[in-house]
């Protein structure tokens, strides 16, 4: 399912991803900065760590931001979309991070099935996966590759879009605020909604994490439909 969802992120969508994501998510920079701070707080400032970044394609923002805060972290970047991974590679090279990052074009399931990582991130991915089974599968795959107690940063849209018409309207206003006309606003909104299947509530996010081998999450960021949480891999088998 992750491979199927990656089909949406073709060369045309990858080309404008960095700009569009910053508009679609008000607080884009702050969310990534806080995600890095949460991981550093959970792991201990200045520690060495191996961090798995699932869905790293695009600007590799998770890695660029975290690497500046923690020089002893090393990263494994995974994404099934070749155009998105090409963009990530370019940003890693620009920031001198290619030597600290292993790049894997594929899914988390393509990695060795062992508890090798001290932390992981899954940012902007879960709401693109159709159905709970696909969402649970990627979370289980991450849990199986994390050491017990290791933190996961999960960030995604949650709540059914149609259930929150005011938030959906505000989303459109966000695009208008950036200079988009009425037709462009509708086109942008349609692209965001294309194939999206966000968890219907914050409780459903917590349930998916629990069912996948994680302890209860702590939310640290919210913006319209978007939420970001830290959850630790629970002891015992994932």
TrEMBL record:
Keyword field: Methyltransferase, S-adenosyl-L-methionine, Transferase
Family annotation (InterPro entries): Methyltransf_12 (IPR013217), SAM-dependent_MTases_sf (IPR029063)
Domain of life of the native organism: Bacteria
Gene3D superfamilies: Vaccinia Virus protein VP39 (3.40.50.150)
Domain Methyltransferase type: 54-151
Single GO MF descriptor: methyltransferase activity
GO BP terms, alphabetized: methylation
This protein's name: SAM-dependent methyltransferase
Organism of this sequence: Methylobacterium aquaticum
């Amino acid at each position: 399912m992750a491979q199927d969802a990656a089909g949406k992120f073709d060369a045309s969508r990858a080309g404008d991803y960095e700009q569009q994501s910053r508009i679609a998510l008000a607080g884009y920079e702050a969310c990534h900065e806080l995600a890095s701070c949460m991981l550093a707080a959970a792991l201990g400032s200045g520690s060495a760590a191996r961090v798995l970044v699932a869905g790293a394609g695009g600007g590799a923002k998770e890695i660029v931001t975290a690497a500046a805060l923690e020089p002893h972290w090393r990263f494994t970047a995974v994404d099934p979309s070749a155009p998105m991974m090409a963009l990530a590679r370019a940003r890693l090279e620009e920031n001198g991070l290619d030597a600290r990052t292993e790049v894997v074009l594929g899914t988390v399931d393509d990695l060795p099935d062992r508890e090798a990582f001290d932390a992981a991130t899954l940012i902007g991915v879960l709401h693109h996966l159709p159905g709970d089974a696909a969402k649970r599968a990627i979370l289980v795959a991450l849990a199986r590759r994390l050491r017990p107690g290791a933190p996961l940063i999960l960030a995604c849209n949650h709540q059914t879009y149609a259930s929150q018409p005011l938030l959906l309207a505000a989303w459109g206003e966000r695009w208008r605020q950036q200079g988009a006309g009425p037709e462009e606003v509708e086109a942008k909104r349609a692209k965001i909604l294309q194939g999206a299947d966000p968890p219907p509530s914050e409780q459903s996010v917590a349930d998916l994490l629990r069912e996948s081998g994680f302890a209860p999450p702590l939310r640290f960021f919210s913006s319209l439909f978007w939420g970001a949480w830290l959850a630790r891999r629970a002891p015992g088998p994932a």
